[in-house]
Amino acid sequence: MRFMMIVKATTDSEAGVMPSQELIDAMQKYNEELVKAGVLLAADGLMPSSSGIRISYPEPGGKPKVVDGPFTEAKEMIAGYTLIEVKSREEAIEWAMRMPDPHGFGQGEVELRQVFEVEDLMTDPDTLAKEALLRKQLEEQKQA
pTM of the prediction? Predict the structure, then answer.
């Protein structure tokens, strides 16, 4: 089971305030624990929404609309994420509870969401086979 720990943005992260060295060290230690346990798939911080681009689809079948950031409501923004693969929902919660306060000022908030597996979304054998081929090609590209 894969889970994404979504680190919510704060006014500081949206303003581009960089984390302290103490927080970087704590997050690095946490990521090392995830690696040692064999559950870490990815972990990255995101730049503020001021450098972001939002693409929306306001009309069914219509052209997408592009809007440059910044976007409002920092608490609705994402400042980073950690993707893990674990055996259960309970294990995912345990790992999320061990994450240091992602902003270091008592403002941190982490949302934990399970990732759909291909089999959860698709049942058609042909579609599943096409998806498996795409994922195999992706892995081969990573190896090259």
Answer: 0.85
Distance CA 132, CA 144 (A): 19
Rounded to 5°, angle at Cα 95 from 10 and 105: 25
| Helices 89-98 and 21-37, axial angle in degrees (round to 10) | 150
The tokens for 139 are 């892995």
Angstrom distance (rounded) from CA 87 to CA 91 = 7
CA distance 21 to 23: 5
Q: Which helix (H) or strand (E) holds 64?
A: none
- CA gap 29, 12 in Å, rounded: 23
Instruction: Summarize pLDDT for 34-87 with one digit per residue, the tens.
Output: 999 999 999 999 999 999 999 999 999 999 999 999 988 766 899 999 999 999
Phi first, then psi, for residue 4 (nearest 5°) are -110, 130
